[in-house]
Write a structure and sequence with these properties.
149 residues; eight-stranded antiparallel barrel; 56% strand; mainly beta
């Protein structure tokens, strides 16, 4: 099997459905690619998501762009059905440090916006390269659950 780059990241904040109160929202992802030097290639990921008291599996794509990473997080809500949280960080907007760690998201159900979320990377930003990125064999990319923080 091939060796690739594994990115492990946890983002947390709040999600507000239209006409509802904000609730805690977080997701942890493991995105893997064997195309290490192709930055703009979408990286599929698997992970875990927390919405209030719910703990759900999630999956999607993380795409690194020069302006900031783009996230598409899909999950199955027990009452609302399939949902997607889509958004991106925009480097430089709202201050450099804030733009590096904060990501606004729109929540969609069947293509219709039904809420907003804002999440942030809460670990020390200077440790990101050491804690979040690692080279692994492809067969181990989604195997070790301890990287899902």
């Amino acid at each position: 099997m091939a060796i690739g780059l594994l990115l492990c990241e946890t983002m947390s904040g709040t999600l507000t459905f239209t006409d509802a109160t904000p609730q805690p929202f977080a997701f942890s992802l493991r995105a893997f690619t064997t195309r290490i030097f192709s930055l703009t290639v979408p990286r599929p990921f698997r992970g875990q998501l927390r919405l209030g008291d719910l703990h759900l599996a999630c999956h999607g794509e993380l795409t690194i762009r020069l302006t900031g990473p783009h996230y598409r997080v899909a999950f199955e809500h027990p009452e609302l059905g399939p949902l997607e949280a889509i958004g991106h960080k925009t480097y430089g907007r709202g201050g450099l440090i804030r733009s590096l760690i904060t990501c606004p998201l729109t929540i969609y159900r069947q293509g219709q916006a039904i809420g907003q979320a804002e999440v942030a990377y809460r670990e020390p930003i200077l440790l990101f390269l050491f804690r979040s990125l690692r080279l692994v064999r492809e067969e181990r990319a989604y195997h070790d659950a301890e990287a899902l923080r």
